[in-house]
Amino acid sequence: xxxxxxxxxxxxxxxxxxxxxxxxxxxxxxxxxxxxxxxxxxxxxxxxxxxxxxxxxxxxxxxxxxxxxxxxxxxxxxxxxxxxxxxxxxxxxxxxxxxxxxxxxxxxxxxxxxxxxxxxxxxxxxxxx
Length: 129
Fold this sequence. Notes:
By secondary structure, the chain is an alpha/beta fold. Helix content is 45%, strand content 12%.
């Protein structure tokens, strides 16, 4: 819990008010955003998932797997579906650069099952949007 730092919320609110966005999302992959504490494998998986999503779904947002309508998705696919559905309904989407610092305690839930669920969700969204 609280893997994303709440210090970015005021900037998200500011962006929403400034541009009247319908949706504002945090992005690790634009501006001053970043990821700290991940090994190379995890960075490649995250970047690769976002790259494939950009090609297939063209969501209009740079980071679909790590930020804060009808939704059927769970896990990492949830945010991807929210952004894609928002774009589908012509909502405006803003992004705020965020930094993600890997957890100090516990372990990531990213494993084979999460990767499979992501691929399944990606194909579902590709075929339904």
